[in-house]
Amino acid sequence: MFKIAAFLKPYRKEVILGPLFKLLEAVLELLLPTVVALIVNNGIGGHDSAYVYRMGGVMLLMSLLGFGSSMICQHYAARASQGFGTSLRNKLFVHISGLSWAELDRLGTPSLINRVTNDVNQLQVAVAMLIRLVVRAPFICIGAIIMSMILDFRLSLILLAATPVFGLILYFIITRSSPLYRKTQQKLDRLAQVLSENLSGVRVIRAFAKGRREKERFDAASEDLTATAIRVGRIAAWLNPMTSVVVNAAIIAILWAGGIRINAGSLSQGEIIAFINYVTQILLALIVVSNLVILFTKAASSAARVNEVLETQPSVRESGSGAVPKADPSSPAIAFKHVSFRYHTTGELALQDITVNIGRGQTVGIIGSTGSGKSTFINLIARFYDPAEGSVEVGGSDVRAYPLEQLRSKIGLVPQKAVLFTGTIADNLRWGKPEATAEELRQAAAVAQAEEFILKSPDGMDTQVARGGQNLSGGQKQRLTIARAVVGRPEILILDDSASALDFATDAALRRALKEYSAEMTVLLVSQRVSTVRQADRIIVFEEGRIAGTGSHQELLETCAEYREICASQLSAEEVQG
User: Do residues 363 and 537 lie in contact, with contact meaning Cβ atoms separated by under 8 Å?
Assistant: First the structure.
């Protein structure tokens, strides 16, 4: 938690003044039982009503002053905790946005969402309680013991004897509950993951009639979380009763010993009343301390999870220091030089010794079986991952020499899964070029074969896109994502199986339009369809992480057995040779 405390620096004033005002309230609260003792002994005992009214007025003034101090502290605590939470959430979001795909895959989306929301909220509450109660509660405990010692030292020894017992109780609860709070957060992540999968895949679940199976899976994750929460709840539930037993036992001992002292005439009635008030204050403060122990144990678990994210460094680091010089026009658009890659340091190679050059302005088809390494190949071009061995060059320069923003501005990527954002169609297309004019948007839509359905929409380019593009068909979403990549006229356009929802005629029209739109654009068509890649200038065939063959359609039919097998599985003999 000390690392995260750095986010409280802008709120030094609130963190310092808040506890001071709370301390003033605690001081006034500690003085009240002594005033009550004076009223009982001097006012009531001496039948002096004026003294009772005068001291009663002092008590009222002290109460009002304490109330005002408490409200000021509440104000500072709210400002500091909410500001701290906002700063921490913003920092987490920026940091997560800078992580590479490897780290995002490892941490997982549901877990990251939980850490940004639930864990930060837990820390916000801890900050508020830190300002409001962390100083006050121990001060009340210690102050009440000191005041009781001033009243009667012998009776206060009973309270001192109860202190180590309370310390043992706290130690017992903390050591057993802390690991369980961490497990609870992990199981909450698991529950969020199952829920996320169910909500995003609800149509598939219903299509396969797997609702009951998914309900059982969710119930299992929920029951696992519940069992852990109940277990930690049972341990935490012992804290207040055990505290109350210890303090109430101390009260009984004080009343018994105090009664003997009063009968002996060595202790006044007012003093025993004040003493009991101090013991009650200690009891209430200990209950607060008990709850703070639980709260800060949870917060410590949340802080560890947040720190884990903040300490995670991206494996793909910004290494380019400035603009990369213009490449020699004779250099290839993309060059792979003996590139090997694995997703995990101890895992198998996803790509093995890949060496290939792709010329400027070429349309290159990339084909292969599922899991052959096609998507991994293109992800290295945009430097979403770094190769384990070898180098990837764009425009004659190693991708690691580019600033990431400059590298990715050269590349238009259309991923396998069409992702759109809430807003208008125009808003989504301008992701590819923020300053794009209406004419540029229209041209990009025409190239992507999206213009027709956009014009049919009542609001045209201003048509609202629902969350995730749920108000659009799969083919419409794919065409809009292609238009989004095309509008910026990138040097390299990568279509990662992004025409799978298009019919053959639209797919063919798209390829023709891309060729006409920019003859200088290097286009990579990643697909499992032979019909999509057969007209490409060049085809690269992947098989189990290696390049099995490269060449034109006719050349590969003669030289590459893997390509012939793919063609035979999709086309008739006449279509293969056509």
Answer: yes
Compute the distance between CA of residue 68 and CA of residue 18 in angstroms, rounded to an integer: 12
Residues shown for the chain: 578
Q: For residue range 480-490, what is the model confidence (pLDDT) as tens digits?
A: 888 888 888 88
- Asked whether residue 314 carries a pLDDT value surpassing 80, the answer given is yes
Residue 97 burial (CB < 10 Å; 0-12/13-18/19+)?
A: exposed
Burial-class residue 458 by CB neighbours within 10 Å (0-12, 13-18, 19+). Answer: exposed
Cβ contacts of 458 within 8 Å, gap of 6 or more: none
C-alpha 341/C-alpha 343 separation (Å) is: 7
How many CA atoms lie less than 13 Å away from 298 in the CB half-sphere? 23
Please give the radius of gyration of the chain, using alpha carbons only, rounded to the nearest integer: 35
Q: How many CB atoms lie under 10 A from the CB of residue 556?
A: 26
Q: Which domains does the chain have, with CATH numbers?
A: 4-187+234-311 (1.20.1560.10), 358-388+399-577 (3.40.50.300)
> CA nearest 447: which of 409, 412, 406, 405?
412
Q: How many other C-beta atoms can be found within 10 angstroms of the C-beta atom of residue 323?
A: 9
Residue pair 528/558 in contact by the 8 Å Cβ criterion: no
> Percent of the chain beyond pLDDT 70?
95
